[in-house]
Amino acid sequence: MNRTKGSRLLQQMIFVGPSAFFFILILIVPFLLGIYYSFTNWNGVGSSHIDVVGLDNYKQIFFDDPKFKTAFWFTAKFTLLGVILTNLIGFVLGYLLTKPLKTRNVLRTIFFMPNVIGGLLLGFIWQFIFIKGFASIGEATNFKFFSLPWLGTENTAFWGIVIVFIWQTAGYLMIIYISSFNNVPKDILEAAEIDGANRWQLLMNIIIPLVMPAITVCLFLAISWSFKMFDLNLSLTKGGPFGSTESVAMNIYTEAFANNRMGLGSAKAMIFFIVVAVITSVQVKVTKSKEVEA
Amino acid sequence: MNMLKKRHPSSFIIELALILVALIFLVPFYFLFVNSVKTFGDLLTNSASWPSTFEWSNYSRAWTITRFPEAFTNSLLVTVISNALLAIFSAMAAYQMVRRDIKLNRILFSLYVAAMVIPFQSIMIPLVKVTSKIGFSDSIPGLIVCYLGFGIPLSVFLFHGFMKSIPLEIEEAATVDGSNVYGVFVRIVLPLLKPIFVTVIILNTLWIWNDYLLPSLILQSPELRTIPIATFAFFGQYTKQWDLALPALVLGILPIIVFFLSMQKYIVEGITAGAVKG
């Protein structure tokens, strides 16, 4: 009896132990420490100068930090537009690419390809496109659109990031939508067609409700990608011009590692976590409730 | 003939429109490749034109300055080792969690699910402190340990979902034949998990290979740089020197593009299977 108990414990340790160890060391410990630091004035230089300051950091963020406010609104605006546009484009591309087209597979490959490149390198590539490439196209075609100082003004820099973000992520969502469209039972569609439903009715009343699980996943992915965007932001605009395109992620980074205000940065990180967690869980709950069985 | 008849007349227009959009998607790649072989003067005059001469020496200069072979080796090392350990540890954990449904395992699993919504930026500040305290900063093994921690939740979650569909009878038969639990896991369960291994490895590869922020916080020495770090450092030094920067970018994206084109089928399957609702 004792032997089997011992071997069961050993088995539990061997199978679950390693993953739990790394998870606790790398995720749980820093997460708990982060909560603690957010109530301190730690400046990153050794641990001797840590004083608990209560809610001071949070007060400062809410009442006296215009840069954080700017970053927050930038991120909110970017997330809203990014989520809607990438899902719309991914959905439409996916829908059209389930039709029997000759170039279907090549097109899928092309639309997905930008996604395998990391955000940092993508941002640098597009820096060149916006600065030099667009200028050349503008000269050749006289379209005013291309001659704008894309990364130089607040408004165009914002749209610049949105454009690159769509280019990067729409293909990924397209793949998920394609597999979901393929799972819509053909007999239901045929039955509805025989009953006289037109294409629009098919889409709105049958296809969309049946691909709702994919919409749940794609919205979740797009929300967390755009909220957490950092690499692309860093390499494309570095938050400029004049800090107008600084995301919350970048604001936290700067506060902690450039200004060395680790306590304040940790408080921002906690607010960031709560906002992301609340928004994604509400979204998953709402869209999940709209899912139906075929 | 039959196929052609079946095609809707509007199919042709849809196809044409999609090809047009695809060309727009490819334009950045055109600019990148064409200008990477131009002389600096040529590049400044007109970046849209085909190169008048091919300046391949741009590439050899970028190759040397970014220390490309070194960065490539580092990226490969980190990606391969992290992937292997993540996959095996997660498979083991998921197996035990599904087959021994005790309270501890259930709590751990719900912690993994909950941890998936924690943004990296929310814990990076104390993480830097923790890693330096235990001597993991500025080392490749230290970076790999970090990837293990961050990768465990999603990987276990994916294995867990797949494990539940494997019937217990197969394992029971093997147990009756005298195999112990470790033998059953290695000889019976692991081979059955192959499809989900592919998914987990694909998703983790795309993440780890392209990741910038974590390695930038952990690694400092130039000889430890991965490709994204090396590219960033290079851009800091050679701002606006496009005749060097563009070939460096081409070199940087080439490995993952080749990986994608050769593994495309698995990548698409992996993403589809990985898109389970949480």
What is the CA–CA distance across the termini of chain B? 45 Å
Helix content of chain B: over 70%
Instruction: Using the coordinates shown, work out and report the CATH topology of chain A.
Output: MetI-like fold
Note the overall shape of chain B.
globular
Under the CATH scheme, the architecture of the domain at 67-237 in chain B is Orthogonal Bundle
Order of helices and strands of chain B: HHHHHHHHHHHHHH
Summarize the helix and strand pattern of chain A as letters. HHHHHHHHHHHHH
- How many helical elements of chain B? 14
Q: What would you report as the Rg of chain A, rounded to the nearest angstrom?
A: 24 Å
What is the level 1 CATH name of the domain at 67-237 in chain B?
Mainly Alpha
CA distance, first residue to last residue of chain A? 50 Å
- Portion in beta strands of chain B: under 5%
Average pLDDT confidence of chain A is: 88
The helix count of chain A comes to 13
Average pLDDT rating of chain B: 87
Radius of gyration of chain B: 24 Å
Class derived from helix and strand content of chain B: mainly alpha
CATH topology of the domain at 67-237 in chain B: MetI-like fold
Chain pair with largest interface: A-B, 95 and 93 residues
* Helix coverage percent of chain A: over 70%
CATH architecture of chain A: Orthogonal Bundle
Summarize the structure.
The complex is a heterodimer of chains A (294) and B (278). With 294 residues, chain A is mostly helical.
SSE diagram, text form:
The complex is a heterodimer of chains A (294) and B (278).
Chain A: H1 2-37, H2 56-63, H3 66-96, H4 104-112, H5 119-141, H6 144-147, H7 154-182, H8 186-194, H9 199-210, H10 212-228, H11 231-236, H12 248-258, H13 262-288
Helix pairs in contact in A: 2-13, 3-7, 3-10, 4-7, 7-10, 8-9, 10-13, 12-13
Chain B: H1 2-6, H2 11-36, H3 40-45, H4 57-65, H5 68-99, H6 103-115, H7 120-133, H8 140-163, H9 168-176, H10 181-192, H11 194-210, H12 213-218, H13 227-237, H14 242-274
Helix pairs in contact in B: 2-14, 4-14, 5-8, 5-11, 6-8, 8-11, 9-10, 11-14, 13-14
